[in-house]
Amino acid sequence: MSLFVGLALFFSYQAMEKDWKNGSLVRRIRSSVTELNTFVQSYIHYHEERPKRQFLVEYDSMTQLIAGIRLRNPEQQRLLDKIGLNSESMKDLFLRLVSNYEPSDPAGNAELLAKAEERLEGQLLIRSRDMDADASRLRSMVDDDIRRAQTRTFTLILFVVLFTTIPLTIVLIRTMKSITTSLSTLRKGTEVIGSGNLGHRIGMTTPDELGDLSDAVDHMTEQLQAVTVSKDELQQEVEERKRAEEEIKKLNDDLKHHVTQLEEANKELEAFSYSVSHDLRSPLRSIDGFSQALLEDYGGKLDGEGRDYLQRVRAGSQRMAQLIDDLLNLSRVARSEMSRVPVDLSKIAKDIANGLRKSDQERNVEFVISGGLTAQGDERLLRAAMENLFSNAWKFTSIHPRGRIEFGMARRDGQPVYFIKDDGVGFDMTYVGKLFGPFQRLHSPGDFPGTGIGLATVQRIIHRHGGRIWIEGAVEKGATVYFTL
User: Fold this and answer.
1) Is residue 324 part of a domain?
2) Do 261 and 374 belong together in one domain?
3) Which residues contact 211 (CB under 8 A, 6 or more apart)?
4) Which pTM does this prediction carry?
């Protein structure tokens, strides 16, 4: 499959390159036709030697261009051949007109010569219009071929990206789900057995270490259940129970060992995700770079629609790269270790505000930050959450000439509630439930940039601190984000 896609992409690029070359030649032919028409008009009006020489030089140049191009489309080749025949006829008429203008016998018939000149001029103009119409039509057809080739090539590139990403994601999800399900079943089974229900069996049949551990627990439980509770055997039962406790302790140690292995596996998966993201970034950078090169080196040869296609390809590749970065950041928030220390939220807010002012010094935004606001938490994660919230407030006030962003604290039910308030575009509270979902956006990317990951990241940070977060707002009346820790 990969070989087939690669060959398709190679041949598509070769076809696009050939269409570009043909398009360049056809545009030169179109320009030559225009020049020939200009020289004919100039000679008819002024009868000078210079437009005559220019006509013959341009005719020879166009003849070489026509001889050096072969088009795959029969209709296009027919138009090209017709232009060549009309140019030969035009040259013949032009030379006849030139010879008619040259000095002749004074005794000749001036009236007949004038009529001949008028007839030749009319025929030249007809040939000129025919060649101009055919050249315009040929250029339009070749430009259409170029656009189709570009669309086909960029579609294949997008398919390659999706073809490599989706299967890998499915494999990762299935692997994690299998490991998590097995551990959950084993934990529940050991809890039931540990509570004294020796008739319970875990019964896992997976062909791995967790399946072997389940078999060992079931075997141990069967042995414990077979012990009699008679008076003579009571001591033996006590001893068996002690041994069982030792076995359970050993199993718990084994379970801890497997948990450690799982943590190591998670770290390996994280490293693998970084590797995957790097492998995805490389083709994205190539797409963006070559698209930029096309715009810079061949932008003048493309029409407006062609340049727009390339700009869309660049914007799409850059947005996908940003999505990859945001997804990795969201994953890190869920797995990173927390270190709870006293955190000066007011200082963090002032640092962020200063950074936003420096990023766009032309913005007129007033920051109102309450002093002395502190909390217990992980400073790195809380800074990341506040940077996301302040950046959103900065972004959604950008369409107003003046903006106001406020950070403060209120008390509700005796608990401190922190808030970040802005007077930006706001939102419809009907859709408030979508705000914290990954990739959920209430505004189009064309109005406000972003990937829809920021609020989902903030929510995870607040939840890891044992708090909650919610948003209130109204359209064109701003929004207020509240959170507790």
Assistant:
1) no
2) no
3) 182, 204, 205
4) 0.40
